[in-house]
Predict the structure.
Amino acid sequence: MESVAERLERLEKQRTAETYMSALKSFRRFVGRPRLAFSELDTDLTAAYEAYLIRRRGLTPNTSSFYMRILRAVYNRAVNQGLTTQNNPFRGVYTGVARTAKRAIPQQALRRIRDMQLPEDGPLAFARDMFLFSFYTRGMSFVDMAYLRKTDLKNGTLAYRRRKTGQLLQIRWEPCMQEILERHEATAESEFLLPIITDPSEGRRQYVQASHRINRNLKAIGTAAGLAAPLSMYVARHTWASIARSRHIPLSVISDGMGHDSEATTQIYLASIDNCEIDKANRLIIKSL
């Protein structure tokens, strides 16, 4: 697995490399030794590891599934390279993605956050504006925001490639985006559009630190706004998708706007809003009796 992580780092997929190493460390803790032959990986071991993750470590089924999918990917790579035979050791464990609690916030809450009176140039105002910038740019992920270059904005269009998939996205530059940019300008010497990364050689570290800091401040903003669930940068992405769906924008358009590889991924984001519509329909049916 180390070789897979190293290859991902060479391809500048650092976040993915970090998740592979995290999964490897977790599995090592479970087996109690640094190395394990692929031939030792069987259904009993994966089932025991799943039980360890959920019962001992207190992880959710989705998080346990995430670790299992990473291990399965490494195992399948070894099979393809002829390092072991395919014995399907993961057939008895959960490797799906279950529906999670709703992460999107309603439009009224979004307006409250936008209109909150916060100290100018303070950390709360900066966190709020980064959240809004993500929402305005169709739920742009924070890592993509951090690495936006000034050269990505040309002739009224913001064009960038998603670091996760490499897909090129183009967004028309709107006045609300420009207002945020003017409030939080990067230095003239910086190549970056937003003042998140100031030193390219420390880019990854500065992005991670900024992410933690902004999410911590967003949590405080969410509490002040009366939200039941914690507010984070990720909520902006879910909120854009949910509001778009509530406006009857076609699923294909939402999927393209978010840069998803398939509409199935978009459906995960929209599962909660679909349930809401179903509940409304059920209420109408019951009232009709």
